[in-house]
Design goal:
heterodimer; A: 40 residues; mainly alpha; 1 helix; 0% strand; rod-shaped; B: 225 residues
Chain lengths: 40, 225
């Protein structure tokens, strides 16, 4: 297992943040598409 | 969602994963920097670049509004300014983290730090102005006029002032003489370019979400809801 202070953990946290941002934007994208369909 | 959009978003997701991996494991650390602190360049510079790009989009949309008086252009301008402000804050925070590691303090009153702080205040005032006017057309006109004035200050604060005064900030890619002076390791340069492209793609996605939301709001307001 890599040491706690290693770059591996920094990279893992950064990728975690990116996945969070991406999933949040994707959920906004889906909600927006739904609202666009509902609005005349 | 169209197939092209799905493919573009999947590409953006994978692109960033590769860029993050490359920033930590492909690019070497730069000489003369404490520890691994130089790796922040792969995130800090693209954030600053996206802020400048967003303020450019804000200017174009503001000019379009003044010409066509279309409220959607005003909404486009506001969306771009909002994202510009967000990315400028992110660039400031990432720069402060770097400053803490390199120079021992989050804030050093460096010309580049001061100029970005002034720029943040200028664009924060843009939103204060928007909040202060309730009539949409009057708000659009005033905000567009202010956005043009705000944009005039941006190149001075971002590109000119930090180069006039002595600065702690590491030397930039474009030299003071205006010639391109790439002094990075080729691997670092590749990752930086990849990150710039990724952040630009993320900006356009966020911008399109904001604009679609504004269009929806305008359609609902027109429909009397």
């Amino acid at each position: 297992m890599p040491a706690p202070e290693s770059l591996f953990w920094v990279a893992a946290v950064t990728i975690g943040i990116w996945i969070g941002i991406f999933l949040y934007c994707l959920s906004l994208e889906r909600r927006l598409s739904k609202l666009e369909e509902e609005t005349p | 969602m169209t197939k092209t959009k799905k493919a573009s978003l999947a590409l953006l997701f994978l692109w960033f994963c590769v860029v993050i991996w490359a920033a930590f494991f492909y690019a070497p650390k730069a000489a003369g920097f404490k520890g691994e602190s130089s790796r922040i360049v792969f995130f800090h510079v693209p954030q600053a670049w996206v802020a400048v790009l967003a303020f450019c989009v804000n200017l174009v949309a503001s000019l379009r509004y003044l010409r066509h008086r279309n409220l959607l252009d005003d909404a486009r301008a506001a969306a771009a300014a909002r994202l510009g402000l967000l990315f400028a804050v992110l660039a400031t925070v990432s720069g402060s983290l770097f400053a803490k590691v390199m120079w021992g303090s989050f804030w050093n009153w460096d010309p580049r730090e001061v100029s970005i702080a002034i720029l943040l205040l200028i664009y924060a005032a843009y939103f204060a102005l928007r909040q202060a006017v309730s009539d949409p057309e009057r708000r659009g006109s005033l905000a567009a006029a202010y956005a043009i004035l705000a944009f005039v200050t941006m190149p001075f604060l971002v590109f000119v002032v930090p180069r006039i005064y002595w600065s702690l900030h590491p030397d930039t890619i474009i030299s003071a003489q205006g010639s391109v002076k790439v002094q990075m390791h080729p691997r670092m340069f590749q990752v930086l370019v990849g990150s710039l492209l990724g952040f630009t793609g993320l900006f356009w996605w966020l911008y399109s979400l904001e604009v679609r939301l504004s269009r929806l709001r305008l359609r609902r307001e027109e429909g009397g809801e």
